[in-house]
Amino acid sequence: MSDARTSSEIERAGMKPWLKKTIAVVVTLLVLVITYFVLAAFLPRWWAQRIAGLAEGGFSRGILWGLLFGILCTAIPLVLLVWVWQVRGWKFGRGVQIALTVVALVVAIPNLMTLSVVLGGGNAAHAGERIMDVDAPGFRGASLVGAIIGVLVFALLVVAVVRYRKRGKDLRAARADLERKAADADGHGTDRAGGAGAAEGRPPEDSSRGPVDR
């Protein structure tokens, strides 16, 4: 009896559920804020150095890499996000949606890091801008143009898929309409044959029977 009373008192003396949730949320927010500042002080400069290594100070190489990252890292995440919506009715749709969302975010990381260099206000972002200006000229502008092209490619792809599906639906509807008309025509032909036989005082001929000997 005393053991049960002691355990119930311990449970009552513990933290309440809402307090535990509040602490968990606060800790998560603190971790995210610290992670943001750490990454903001490191990623822009690191990303600029990686792009500088790819471009090797060449204007044409900077433009080509900018277009490549801009197009692919914009169009592919958009397509994956559309698939996130398409698979919502699947048996394991929730897991597939999470996986596609993670892949979309990973593919979009290069564009996001370029944005951290362009839009960032910290020392690392300014250092990244200087590195790109010297060792990867044209990359930032080409990335913007590539992102616009990626959006246009995605829009054209969506239009093409929608038109293809509409065409398939129209073809199925037309085929069903032709089959219905053919069935109606066969039914009317049978009715006319039966009516002619009844008018002559004889049943309609059965095509399955052979000629009758007279």
TrEMBL record:
<feature type="region of interest" description="Disordered">
    <location>
        <begin position="179"/>
        <end position="214"/>
    </location>
</feature>
<keyword id="KW-0472">Membrane</keyword>
<feature type="transmembrane region" description="Helical">
    <location>
        <begin position="63"/>
        <end position="85"/>
    </location>
</feature>
<keyword id="KW-0812">Transmembrane</keyword>
<feature type="compositionally biased region" description="Basic and acidic residues">
    <location>
        <begin position="202"/>
        <end position="214"/>
    </location>
</feature>
<feature type="transmembrane region" description="Helical">
    <location>
        <begin position="21"/>
        <end position="43"/>
    </location>
</feature>
<protein>
    <recommendedName>
        <fullName>Permease</fullName>
    </recommendedName>
</protein>
<feature type="compositionally biased region" description="Basic and acidic residues">
    <location>
        <begin position="179"/>
        <end position="191"/>
    </location>
</feature>
<feature type="transmembrane region" description="Helical">
    <location>
        <begin position="97"/>
        <end position="119"/>
    </location>
</feature>
<keyword id="KW-1133">Transmembrane helix</keyword>
<feature type="transmembrane region" description="Helical">
    <location>
        <begin position="139"/>
        <end position="162"/>
    </location>
</feature>
